[in-house]
Amino acid sequence: MRSTLPYKQQVVLAGALALVAVCLSAVLAHAEPEKKTDQKTPPKKLTGAELYAINCARCHPERYATEFTAAQWKTIMLHMRVRANLPAAQAKEILKYLQEDSGN
Ligand code: HEC
């Protein structure tokens, strides 16, 4: 063989190329959009606790629900709802969760 690479390296290189080809074909096979026509389960509705974790820990760490009273949470939510730019339904879920676990 008139190659500059030793035989062992050529074998490794060929193996690596084959692996890349296999991976590429696997990726391309999955690239086709999946058609989900009969989607029976509706998108999961997030709980108050989940909405709280997602929306309320962006600017400051989460506060425990027990740190404030139900009345305090109501006032806090008036302010933080605007900050978090929450739709009414989500703000309501979060408030419900916080008040259920609140200090009293
Ligand atoms: C855009 C940023 C931002 C988001 C989003 C946000 N907060 Fe705040 N939060 C602040 C800032 C700034 C303060 C401190 C200043 C203040 O109290 O106004 C604060 C303070 C608080 C406090 C302390 C109040 C006190 O009297 O000690 C609580 C509790 C709180 N936020 C809860 C929440 C909850 C619940 C959410 C989700 C609905 C939320 N925050 C989302 C910015 C944010």
What features would you describe in this structure?
This protein has 4 helices and no strands. The mean pLDDT is 84. By secondary structure, the protein is mainly α. The chain has helices at residues 7-31, 48-55, 70-84, 88-100. It folds into 2 domains: 1-33; 48-100, Orthogonal Bundle (Cytochrome Bc1 Complex, Chain D, domain 2), CATH 1.10.760. Helices cover 59% and strands 0% of the residues. Bound molecules: heme C (HEC). Heme C binds at residues 55-56, 58-60, 63, 76, 79-81, 83-84, 86, 94.
SSE layout:
Blueprint: H1 7-31, H2 48-55, H3 70-84, H4 88-100
Helix pairs in contact: 2-4, 3-4
Structural class: mainly alpha
Domain module tally: 2
Strand content: under 5%
Biggest beta sheet summary: none
- The whole-number mean of residue pLDDT values reads 84
Radius of gyration: 27 Å
List keywords for this structure.
104 residues; Cytochrome Bc1 Complex, Chain D, domain 2; 2 domains; 0% strand; binds heme C
Quick structural overview:
This protein is about 60% helix and about 0% strand. With about 100 residues, it is mainly α.
